[in-house]
Write a structure and sequence with these properties.
Elements: E1 13-15, E2 20-23, E3 28-31, E4 52-54, E5 61-63, E6 71-72
Antiparallel strand pairs: 1-2, 2-3, 4-5, 5-6
Length: 89
């Protein structure tokens, strides 16, 4: 089964508020949880990292690479994280 992505998972998405944002490519307002488009570019997030392990709840997990801050959120952006590495598909 192929993973479905939303605008929130795209590098080209800039949030305006909790429900919507602007697509930098199309220059238009899009829904945050709307389906991604042909301009989709996956944003590094914990949920896409090989070091991320989901927790008991849907909104929390752990970073298996970090010893000082092991708790993390799946949607936390990992652009500047030293431990981020893409998961194998």
């Amino acid at each position: 089964m192929e993973q479905e992505f939303t605008h929130l998972d795209c590098r080209n998405y800039a949030p305006v508020d909790v429900a919507k944002g602007i697509c930098h490519v199309k220059k238009e307002i899009v829904l945050a949880d709307g389906e991604s488009c042909e301009s989709f570019e996956k944003l590094p997030k914990c949920k896409f990292c090989k070091n991320y392990a989901p927790g008991e709840g849907e909104y929390i997990g752990t970073c298996e690479a970090s010893k000082t801050r092991p708790m993390t959120y799946p949607d936390l952006i990992g652009v500047t994280c030293d431990f981020f590495a893409w998961q194998e598909n």
